[in-house]
Every structure is written in structure tokens, then in C-alpha cells.
Structure prediction request, 413 residues.
Amino acid sequence: MNLRTCKPLESPKVFSAKRPFSNFAFRDKHFPHCEPVGRILSQARRLEFKSIVMEKIPSVGFSKDDDQELKKANVEFVKSELFRLTFFKKTFRQPDGTKRCRDEDFLGYVILKGNEFQNNVKRWIVFESVIFPPRHDNNFTHSKKSYDVRSGAKIFKVKGNLYCQQNGITNVCAHVALRTVISAIVPSGDISYREMNRILEKAGKPHETGNGLSKEQMKVVLGHKKIGFFEFFQKETAVIPYQKYLYGSIEMGYPALLGFKLKRSGDQIERHIIPVLGHTFNEDTWVPNAESGYFSIGKDTRYVPSEAWVSTYICHDDNFGSNFCIPRLYIGQGSEKEIEEVYALGTLPKNCLCDPIEAEAVAVDYLYSIVPKMTANIEWVKRLKAAVEKSWVVLRPVLMTGEKYVAHLSKAR
Prediction:
């Protein structure tokens, strides 16, 4: 039994989202101090939601595991309370109104979990949520998954990327980022925090309550789930910008991780990591023409990565919410006074023989080797030679099998 499809404990409540309905008032009344749910409600409003169904649900599946982990941690955890909110484009007033809705009317869901501790301390978190990605035409997320979600008596489907918020005790930002990434790749579509912690314990690298996960621990979890990866770590100026690692992964249809360490005074160190799921791509952007957006493999092999046309990267941040956009050059420029270290990890199939960074290097090496030997007096050879001379060759890594590539070449004209 899972939280998305379990039956409610009591009759669902329906709220009209038509104005003057207030997202802020709704959040503050039902889920106080939970900032990310405000972001989710805002996204639902942009998608023109008309109705909200709220259901109280049992703590089952991953939530039950989470309860047990909190009890073991000796943090004065008492109990939890869960609600499932589902969003619709149609207007209805009674719970059976969902029966008249179709998947096209369903915009997504959020499951709120209230963890209660001794002395009546209660903290609401977004245990999980999936809502349709941003509506803009130039936003691309290639790693979306389809999820079944109950609302009332009917099951609906929503496609997107899982967003989760840490409890800060038995799971932290790295856990929720890994859950988002892994759920987009593995056939089962999800992984629990308990499973991650058991994987680490079995590997002799247990998670310590309240602490973050190291890069090594994250790679242990990915390796156990048979997910390949390629990584970048920067303390000083790097030859290869971290954005190429993000782009190479997400353009192949696989999510990535972006971590950073903030500069703090004294002994205070603050690290954070977020999943990166897509990008905004603007073919009319001015930067590649006005700026030297070229990438150099060697002295005479310069080219323009297609990543130069990326405006922003689409990410989740468990502190704030889902489907945010980070300006492509923000970390390292706009935030350089605050960021001390940057870490990027791209995922790819376990049996992949070449990561996208290496693929571009090999491709440009072959290209610059064969172009001088081209003698055919045809228009496209002339154009290719001119592009090479001006370093205006654009390369974009694409993931495919050798068989598919050979088939592509055989059809080329």
C-alpha cells in the first residue's frame, strides 16, 4: 500500500480554488510554516486549478518506514498525521465530482506529513509531490515519470518529477535529492529513505542521524541501484565548467545532482544539494554570439557546446519547492561571494561506455582530423569547413547504442 493510492480515513473535503480563494490563508490554516506547499499551490494556480480535494490518509508505506526510523532515532517523536491534496482544472463541490474528471483535468498532488514531537511540537513537511512541470514552451524535462494517484474513488495519472522535503533527522537534503533522481530512473519509480540508509549500513558507511551524506555515500546508493554517473568537483577555477556535467546528463534524459558549500564564518559549514531535471533552451539567446561561448579541447580544436543556448536549469529545492529555474551562470558568478565549492554529478545508464564530456572531446577530435581531408566541391562541405575555421561548429551529446548510430549513418544523405 502506498500514499498515492491508499484510501482516505474519512470523507474527502472539497475546496473551491476560484478567487477570492487565498493560497496563503489555506496554507497557514491547515499546514502552518510549510513554505514549499505555498510554492506548489502557486504552481497549481498557474495551471488554472479550480478545485482542491483534501483527504486524511493513514501513515503507510514509506511514511510508516519514516515513522519507525524517527522512533529509533530517540528524538522524542510521538506520531504523524498525513493529508493528500489533489488539484483539478474542473469545478465541483462534492467529493464524487472527481468521478466526472479525466486525467486531462488532473494537475497533480501533494502529500503533507505533520511530524509531532513531545511538548506539542509539530512540523509539517511535503513528504512527496508531483505537479505538471512549467507550462513554458522552451522548458524541457526529459526524465519525467508517470504516477498513479487516488482522489476520492478514482485513480488518476500525472507525469512529472517527484519532489520531497527532508525531515532533517533521519533523512536530509541528499536523501530527498537522491529519491528524486532515482525515482526518475528505476523501473519501480521510487526508493524509500529507509532503503537508502540500509544500503549505506550494509556498505559500512552508515548515515549518522541529523548529518548530511558525503559524496561517497551518495555514490554507494547510486551504484547499488545500478545507476552510472560522472562527476565534477570544483574548489578553484575549473577547465570544464560544472554546467556541462548537468547538461550532458539531462539532455540524455537522466537527472543530475548539483551541490555546493556556502562560505560561513568560524566553524559553521553549510552544504546543500539539489536535483536538476531539465533546462530552458532559447535558440534566440544573444550570449553565444556576443560572448566567447566556445569550449576548447586543444589549441586548434574549439567549438560551441549546445549548452551555450541554455538559459536556466530546472531544479527542485527541498527548502523552497519544485520546478525552480537556476540561471545557467548563477553559481560561480552571481553567487561567487557566497559559494566556496561546487559539486555536480550527472547520471547515465550503468552500461554506458562513454560519458557526454568524453563524447564531445572524441567527436571534435575526429571532426577536426577529417575536415582538412574533405575535397568534395559541394555546398555542405564548404559550409562545414567555414564553420571549423571560425570555431562555429556546434556539438550536442546524444545517448544512443552503436547499432542505432550505424543505422543513422546508413540512412544519411
Q: What stands out?
A: The mean pLDDT is 90. The longest strand covers residues 77-88.
